[in-house]
Amino acid sequence: MTTSLKLNIPTVAPRGSPAFAQALKACCAITAFQADQVQFCKSTDAAVSLEAPKEGVKIVDINAIVRYLGRVGGAGFKAERAPDDAWIEWEELVLRPRISELETVLDLAEKLLGKSGITAAVSPAQIILFSTLYDSTAGASPSILDKHPLLKTWLRKTLDSEWAIEGIQKAATMTTVAPVDNSSSKAVKGAVGTAEKVAKKPVVVGTVADRKVEGGIEMKVYGDGEKILPVPGQRNILITSALPYVNNVPHLGNIIGSVLSADVYSRYCKARNYNCLYVCGTDEYGTATETKALEEKVTPRELCDKYNALHQAVYKWFNIGFDHFGRTTTPEQTEIAQDIFLKLHKNGYLSEDSITQLYCEEHNGFLADRYVEGTCPKCGYDDARGDQCDKCGTLLDPMELLKPRCKLDNSTPIVRPTKHIYLELGKLQPKEEEWFNKSATEGAWARNGKMITESWLKEGLQKRAITRDLSWGTPLPKEGFEDYQKKVLYVWFDACIGYVSITATYTKEWERWWKDPENVRLYQFMGKDNVPFHSVIFPSSQLGTGDKWTMVNHISTTEYLQYEGGKFSKSRNVGVFGNNAEETGIPPDVWRFYLLSSRPETGDTQFIWRDFIYKNNSELLARLGNFVNRLVKFAIAKYEGLVPDYATAGSDPAFDGFKADVNKLLKEYVEELEAVHIRAGTESLMHVAQRGNQFIQDNKLDNSTFAAEPAKTAAVVGLGLNLIYLLSALSYPYMPGTAESIARQLNAPLRRIPDTWEMDLKVGHRIGAAEYLFSMIDLKKEGEWQSKYGGDKKTEEALKVVEKKKKADKKAKRKEAVGKKGEGSAAASGGAVPN
Q1: Residues 643 and 736 in one domain
Q2: Is the per-residue pLDDT at 280 higher than 80?
Q3: What gap in Å lies between CA 468 and CA 316, rounded to an integer?
Q4: How much is the average pLDDT of 115-139?
Q5: Rounded average pLDDT over 269-279
Q6: At which of 763, 783, 803 does a domain end?
Q7: pLDDT (0 to 100) of residue 166
């Protein structure tokens, strides 16, 4: 068996030329016989040639190449292979010296078909004859094939076969193609043996040369080195996602809780052509870093470098489109944090106090919060940290812990006095409260973000220490704080300033983003445990400086994503972590869609393998993937890859109803995303795809309709292709790789999300080659993945929770819809809405 073949394809092969017919034969043979070992190579020669280095031969006769590929193809065939003696007479016909007259070829083929019958089996002879007829009859008068009805039936049937469709796509992609000049009979005559000039203007598929698309639809793309900056009078959106610590590998819950959710909104804003900057980075200072560095026996800097690179690799695989991903251990962080600190001191919002703090006699040092573990005084959890209980979420002081222990050596610490600097949050509460009430209302914060903040304010803000006894952190300013040079800024005060300093490492004009509240809207994404730092402490610090800061306009928060009925745990090998997702071989877009469609917005949600597989197979593949693939292949097979004339779409009331439905769904999608309803957007996206499926089913898009109602079929295909183009834009925030694939298939630029759906692909626009968007996942994978990634084996129970949650969400939506309808009726009548 030959293991490596080199197929040389001419780069100049206009549609209707002998070179294109040869390329088509070769591509169909490779597809039909699964000759995956063949390597395509561009060639300046006028004919296709095949090199078989192992056998030391070079084949230049295209029919011989097809027969050779049939002999050395892969172990299986995409089509049933014809018996060796079934097509002997076909072999005699197609392999004899070339017949230049098409009529003679058709007559002979018709007689042989009548004698041997039509079969789905494939042979080299069939591939050769099909390619010859497809290429040579493309520009011919329909009457030529009408004289040979049996052959016409065979050709149409073969056009529907997978190997023929993929072969045509490959040939179109590999070569230079051009529309056939239908006015010239020369396009038919001699197509088998002599070259004729049938192309007025050859174009390369995949370039802009043959694009007929509406102007101004492109999504704005920034060039290399071009900085994204706000523009006065335009929509300017600044987006941040909670900065991940550099002491772990992010799991799926971490990813959906911050960076992925923020990425969706960032991509949505960019697809609307807003000026949008998305920044993130690793949170590198603090006790957590020092502790992990001690565990791994490296310096804190070495640890930060390691995990910064690890996080970036994970996010890159998930296709998180940061405009800038930085880190907090920078000179910019020191400068900006110290400036905020000094302004708070100047304005009377800092104080000094002596406190008692836990001290470890074993290694002679005061213990910062995360160096202390013990029992939570609120819920009794015996593995609470000194700053927070992971079980109940309560923020703690190490002195509050029951049975405290040193994390480094497990010894029992003692209490000693020490001095720290405090932020007087109580003094800042009136300013904070006034700002919060305005921002949470105007920015329509997520419900849990509002509730957590309200609970803090209701209890009354207390002063909190903003220094710690550590060596790894932002140093305090020297002037006036000489007695504190062995202390650093506490990470909960310091971390949110990282958003500002990371922006400063992106552009020296960072203040245009961070000190222009009239012109910039700030959106921040995080898990619920991070809310107080973003809604109370950081805003209070901004207000206390007296500077004119851009402050958060909308806080988008999530609850927790559980894994198969339990918790993610790296130590117990339970759950999928960022680097595990790639190991499964499932593309990033499938992971993104599933996580976003399960986003824990109003309560905890479950990651369940069975549900993951279902989402891929029944939604992504069945609704979106099949819709796109079916229409693109149909357009390539029936219309030579050109958008057909859909003029009749304007005169059919059914088509008007379809367009109205799509525009209604588009409006709902935009409204959901503008309100940062991330999960609801996935539902709106699939509703649009499903409406497209219903459209082609209602209009019975198939070969018989194509023959009986050509004008209607052209309208259906034209509208369908334009809907696919819209779907590429709606998919972009959630599945950017899918959006890019659709754009390639349509040979069109990435487009913006419009307010109204229009026909942006014009008649005559040449599309590209078809690609599969999604693949079926075998249900057997559920057990394999459960075994590999652990779990509490509570899948059935977790599934019930998921179904219960889905029903509750549907009920809430119906209630909301009824409420909106009632409000509309009341407003129209001037009456009040009943309770």
Answers
A1: yes
A2: yes
A3: 34
A4: 67
A5: 97
A6: 783
A7: 76
C-alpha distances (whole Å) from 441 to each of 74, 168, 561, 834 are 64, 57, 27, 23
Strands 57-59 and 49-52: antiparallel
Question: Once rounded to an integer, what is the mean pLDDT over residues 722-731?
Answer: 98
Boundaries of domain holding 39: 5-204
Q: Does the residue 278 lie in any domain?
A: yes
Residue 635 lies in a domain: yes
Higher pLDDT, 65 or 812: 65
Helix/strand/coil (H, E, C) string of 258-303? CHHHHHHHHHHHHHCCCEEEEEEEEECCCHHHHHHHHHHCCCHHHH
pLDDT(28) > 70: yes
How far apart CA 185 and CA 339 sit, in angstroms, is: 80
Query: How many CB atoms lie under 10 A from the CB of residue 528?
Result: 18
Let me know whether 160 and 131 are in one domain. yes
> CA dihedral defined by 803, 809, 814, 819, rounded to 10 degrees?
160
- DSSP classification of residue 213: B
Q: Position 37: which residue type?
A: Q
Q: Which of 211-225, 577-591, 678-692, 699-713 has the lowest mean pLDDT?
A: 211-225
496: pLDDT strictly greater than 90: yes
Mean predicted confidence (pLDDT) in 99-124: 66
Helix/strand/coil for 599: coil
Number of domains in the chain: 5
Give, in order, the Cα–Cα distances in Å from 213 to each of 222, 464, 553. Answer: 21, 59, 37
Query: Are 469 and 486 a contacting pair, CB within 8 Å?
Result: yes
341 is a domain residue: no
Residue where one domain finishes, among candidates 156, 184, 204 = 204
